[in-house]
Amino acid sequence: MFYGVYYGVLGRDFAHICTDRMASRIGYYTPDGLPKKHLEDGVCAVCGGRLDDSEHVHEVEVKSLTGESDDEKLYKLSCGHVFHEWCIRGWVVVGKLQTCPYCKERVDLQRMFKNPWEKPHLFYGKLLDWIRYLVCWQPLIVTAVQGITTWLGLE
């Protein structure tokens, strides 16, 4: 079990590093070579793909604007940026980032995932944070407190 927890935390940290690297490269290309952050209209900031089907946009803060369809849904965050459904889910769930990939505005995951069967990753993300604290930081804190009490002679 310890190895599973260790590799789970390590995998999450690696995913976080990868998403940070992706975020640092979003929208920074110009033909003249000078970096400038600009996202064109109709482009997903995560995958760089076209957002052609603008009538199937789902607002995160309100219910969907249209009915269900076979096409991939588009989600519009509170900041106004639009993403493919699976791109933003991958960004939020796999990368454990609760921010817009482009402007870094906070995303409310409770509003984004309305169905209860879509929310277990929220619980497991918090559980992994707690385990990371327990496994990584608590031994260091206990050692520091023990060293201070020994140094002060408060044994």
Automatic annotation (TrEMBL):
**Entry-linked SMART domains:** RING (SM00184)
Q: What positions belong to coiled-coil segments?
A: none
Which one of the record's GO molecular function terms can you name?
zinc ion binding
Pfam families in the cross-refs: zf-RING_2
Name the principal localization, coarsely classed: membrane
Kindly give the membrane topology term recorded for this protein.
Multi-pass membrane protein
Q: What is this protein called?
A: RING-type domain-containing protein
Task: Tell me what organism the protein belongs to.
Answer: Caenorhabditis nigoni
